[in-house]
Amino acid sequence: MTVQKVEQVKHLPIKLGEVARYVIVPGDPNRVPLIANSLENPVHQGQNREFNAFKGTYKGTEISVVSTGIGCPSTAIAVEELSYIGAEVLIRIGTSGSVDNSAKKGEIFIATAAVRDDGTSKQYIPIEFPAIASHDLTENLIKASKALGIPTKIGICQSKDSFFGEVEPNRMPVAPYLENKWKAWQGGGVGASEMEAATLFTLAHIKKLMAGAVLAVEVSDAETVNNMTRIVLEAINYLEEDRNVE
Amino acid sequence: MSNNDANDSKGGLLDTPIQYHIQLKKGDVSDFVILPGDPGRVEFIAEHFDSAELVADNREYKTMTGSYKGRSVTVTSTGIGCPSTAIAVEELANVGVKTFVRLGTSGAMQEYTRIGDKVIATGAVRYEGTSVQYMPIEFPAVASHDMVSALIKSAKNSKITHHVGIVQSKDSFYGQHNPESMPIAAELLQKWDAWVKGGVLCSEMEAATLFVVGSYRKLRTGAVLLVAGDQARQESLTKEEYTQNMSDSINMILESSLDIKEGE
After folding, report:
1. CA spacing 20 to 30 A to A139: which of A65, A93, B43, B155?
2. Phi and psi for B162 in degrees, rounded to 5?
3. Do A130 and B138 touch (CB under 8 A)?
4. B2 with B216: CB under 8 angstroms?
5. How far apart, in whole angstroms, are the C-alpha atoms of residue B22 and residue A171?
6. Which of A40, A38, A93, A95 is CA-nearest to residue A66?
7. Dist CA B163 CA B201 (whole Å)
8. Which of B48, B222, B194, B33 is nearest to B119 (CA)?
9. pLDDT tens for the 246 residues of chain A, in order
């Protein structure tokens, strides 16, 4: 499937020609300037709803930072519209909760795949289809974290739609359903729980984009965000180097 | 908790050193096993080792263990389908296998996946009944990142034409090859169309359960699928082409085994 390019999109504050090939996609619009601060010459391009957009460069490569808002519905809109205006590589930087305790508070988690506990990706492709990050991008994220000496955990994350269904499952009418599933994710080796990766990975695969995700486990302090940003920027640099070789 | 101790509980019918179906015990196998579907392919695979001997042959599970360039390796057939594959993976894990690489044949699903190509699976569509008796369907059937990397490296070094991506695992062979004749034809055809649009590379019958059971039991998994047929083009490999391509795939997996440290 070839992605149709369009001039104007409905929700994002940017249009064709204004987005880089590489886009960092945090959930929080307020985190966009923090991430963009690590770029050379960051420019604020605008904000509409939860979609805040900056663009700058890193080691000469253009990079955009665009927030998705919380959850897979707004993430799908961001992914669709980013691809319409020319983006090709999408990397989520986000926060998450610990699931099976393999990833501990304060650690950085690189997601290879996601549990599709969301509603949005099912409106694209049947549930049997796996939500998987791009192998090549994930390989470069791992390589970058090693080169920078930033320890990470690697594994499967869970993407849910209900934040309070995770943190206060007992008060939900579907409490047994939530608890049974959570136990299954723990038994299956799921490391982190968040709210956007499943749709990001599924939709990116369908649209032949590259996608990956780097998640902070149970923290969102400036130093951790900065470390995640450094990993992502260096991974983009590696991808760009490989591209220039080929 | 180590899931590898799952069957160590005392007192059951299965509580014996010799695993019930595969008829193997600790010491019979390497930590690295190649999993073809066909027991008739086991001997051919072992011919690519430097040495090999038959250690068990029961039902569809035939096992040979030997070495390749100084590394121990085992080959065990799974039989066709996810139910018998789950049994093989569980019992092999019980006797110490840590890395599982499936080697199978598949049907092309994309215009660019041609017969003779090798597909290195990063994940699998769970269109089968076994893995849902382990994990809810939302869980991704995903191969181990480091195994995929080792297979890609091996394929590149040997200049083997390969694709990296998602494959489809199904239970009904004839549901794929003759969907119109099935009472649920509409679902089969609509889902097939969705997988094709989703970029799924090829169709086979075991990878999804291998990957899901592997995640649960914390095993390293991967899969190499030789594209042997192409429904859309009505093409299939000749016997000679099949043998040569299977041989290339076996060598590719054996070379990748050298990147996996013994016992890890």
Report:
1. A65
2. -140, 160
3. no
4. no
5. 47
6. A93
7. 8
8. B222
9. 456 788 899 999 999 999 999 999 999 999 999 999 999 999 999 999 999 999 999 999 999 999 999 999 999 999 999 999 999 999 999 999 999 999 999 999 999 999 999 999 999 999 999 999 999 999 999 999 999 999 999 999 999 999 999 999 999 999 999 999 999 999 999 999 999 999 999 999 999 999 999 999 999 999 999 999 999 999 999 999 999 886
Whether residue B136 and residue A205 make contact (CB cut-off 8 A), yes or no, is no
Could you identify the residue written with the tokens 């393999």?
A102
**CB-CB under 8 Å, B139 with A185:** yes
- B123 at the A interface (CB within 8 A)? yes
B123 contacts in A (CB within 8 Å)? 113, 130, 132
Distance CA A158, CA A117 (A): 7
> Alpha-carbon distance B167 to B127, whole Å?
11
Interface of A to B at Cβ within 8 Å reads 1, 112-117, 124-132, 135-136, 138-139, 142, 154, 156, 181, 184-185, 187-190, 205-206, 208
